[in-house]
Amino acid sequence: MGLARVTAPVDQGATAARVGVAVVFGAGGGIGGALIAAIRAAEKFEHVVAFGRSTSPAIDLTDEASLERAATFAAAHGELRLVIDATGFLHDERHTPEKSWRQLDAAHLARSFALNSIGPALIMKHVLPRLPRKGKAVFATLSARVGSIGDNRLGGWYSYRASKAALNQLVRTAAVELSRQSPDALCIAIHPGTVATSLSAPFATTGLEVHEPEAAARNLLSVLAQLTAESSGGFFDWRGQAVPW
Ligand SMILES: NC(=O)c1ccc[n+]([C@@H]2O[C@H](COP(=O)([O-])OP(=O)(O)OC[C@H]3O[C@@H](n4cnc5c(N)ncnc54)[C@H](OP(=O)(O)O)[C@@H]3O)[C@@H](O)[C@H]2O)c1
Fold first, then answer.
1. How far apart (Å, rounded) are the C-alpha atoms in residues 163 and 140?
2. Ligand 1 mean position, distance from CA 241 (Å)
3. Chunked in runs of 10, what are the mean pLDDT values of the chain (245 residues)?
4. Atom 38, ligand 1: which residue's CA is nearest?
5. Reported pTM
6. Distance separating alpha carbons of residues 244 and 49, to the nearest angstrom
């Protein structure tokens, strides 16, 4: 699902019943694109804002100013009631997940932390202070079960696992601070399941339960709709079950 089909990053709501603003960072990705489509189709928000590397304003996780501009742009449209970070990095033409410590590479590790930990941390830095002080508001970032330390029995994928574990700690820490500012709000990490996107394509194994992005988006939105502030700081999967740290 490419952002080429998105002619404008902001949808104007047609009815007074819609409230607040929903935002997706990484709206050009497989899951991000499906999330934007599902949020638009649900018609619950007054404005739906999609950010990607080819929107205007554009975001780049390695450019903090772009993330601040995006947060300011979104907040100018009303109260941020749902913000989902669907960005992430697993592989590219230079880096594939490590099978052994022999493949550990400083540049691969640094890129994974830059995109999976530091970028989302900077999104939180600029989004969380802009969440409403009262009423439910959700910030969710797409983490991955393989970032769970307690659940790591297979090994491998050092950079991805470690950068998602760092993301989980950043989410937990920010949630503590958010609870003082916005007691009804949530800041969570969520595992979308294995989803058929370009990120997972090279690693699809027979027998694995793989979801289409549209189904994954429905699952994620349903969990986010059900969670309450008591769950803030948590790490959940697409069924709403807590994932061990
Ligand atoms: N697919 C799965 O099975 C699976 C499983 C567990 C967790 N997850 C997590 O779910 C999230 C979304 O994954 P996906 O499967 O939808 O992958 P995807 O299709 O590859 O999407 C990745 C997204 O990250 C964005 N991105 C990458 N580098 C960026 C940068 N420098 N600046 C701004 N945006 C950047 C991409 O933007 P562009 O569109 O501009 O390239 C794209 O929107 C990731 O965090 C991933 O770790 C996925």
1. 16
2. 22
3. 43 68 98 98 97 97 98 98 98 96 98 98 98 98 98 97 98 98 98 96 85 98 98 98 98
4. 28
5. 0.95
6. 32
- Tell which one of 92, 111, 122, 142 to mutate to probe ligand 1, the residue whose CB is within 8 A of the most ligand atoms: 142
pLDDT of residue 15: 53
Place of tokens 């709501």: 13
> Residue type at 192?
P
Q: What is the pLDDT of residue 28?
A: 97
Q: How many C-alpha atoms does 43 have within 13 Å on its Cβ side?
A: 6
Q: Ligand 1 centre from 214 Cα, in Å?
A: 15
- Spell out which residues line ligand 1, taking CB within 6 angstroms: 26, 28-32, 52-53, 59-62, 86-90, 115, 142, 144, 191-192, 194-195, 197-200
Phi and psi at residue 68, in whole multiples of 5°? -65, -45
Q: Note the helical H segments in 43-82.
A: 64-75
